[in-house]
Design a protein that fits this description.
single chain; 206 residues; mainly alpha; Arc Repressor Mutant, subunit A; 74% helix; Tetracycline Repressor, domain 2
Length: 206
């Protein structure tokens, strides 16, 4: 066995780490990073604070672990946008995937939003290394589709930012939406129709 071989965590250790991260996600999404405490996370996880610290050095370590996992999850829908696909199909597919994530992961979305609002003190390196190159790549792809006349012309950067703003609203403002739209239906169809109309090129004038 090599000197650098690390012992793999046991099934119980993995289970407890997940338990802590699930509890922390609730606490951070409710109270923000600054308002959250290790005591709150330990209580939500149903374990003692010393036991929690056995798995994570502190609040920041838990927060960073959550954000790292979330970044990978958040990038996947954009990665799936393929150059060889039909532009309208690819972009609307991305919109649908983002809406689905907003429905499924409202806590994660609020966690990410809270980090960005604070100036991304823990996520900035990931934004620079992982998100920015992918963002630039997909903007260039969308620009090529626009130049070819396959979708309407606009700034591809702001198109992606608008998709983020619209879809993540349904996660970040979930409490408000439960009041305004108690039946909770129609959002997906509305958002897809809006972007389809935005992306459809105007008929060529003869």
């Amino acid at each position: 066995m090599g000197a650098n071989t690390e012992k793999k965590p046991s099934r119980i250790q993995l289970k407890n780490r997940k338990r802590i991260m699930d509890a922390a996600l609730d606490v951070f999404s409710q109270h923000g990073y600054r308002g959250a405490t290790l005591d709150q996370i330990a209580e939500a996880a149903g374990m003692s604070k010393p036991n929690l610290i056995y798995y994570f050095d502190g609040k920041e370590a838990i927060h960073v672990a959550l954000l790292n996992a979330l970044m990978e999850e958040w990038l996947d829908p954009l990665i799936e946008m393929k150059a060889e696909g039909d532009p309208m199909t690819e972009i609307l597919g991305y919109v649908r995937r983002k809406m689905e994530m907003s429905h499924r992961y409202p806590r994660e979305s609020r966690l990410f939003a809270g980090e960005i609002i604070q100036g991304a003190p823990r996520m900035k390196p990931h934004l620079e290394r992982r998100l920015k190159p992918l963002f630039d790549e997909k903007c260039a792809l969308i620009e090529s589709w626009m130049k070819a006349g396959r979708i309407a012309r606009m700034d591809p950067r702001h198109l992606i930012l608008t998709i983020w703003a619209v879809t993540q609203h349904y996660a970040d403002f979930d409490a408000q939406l439960r009041v305004l739209l108690p039946e909770g239906d129609g959002a997906d169809a509305h958002v897809e129709t809006m972007f389809r109309r935005l992306l459809t090129p105007e008929p060529t004038k003869r």
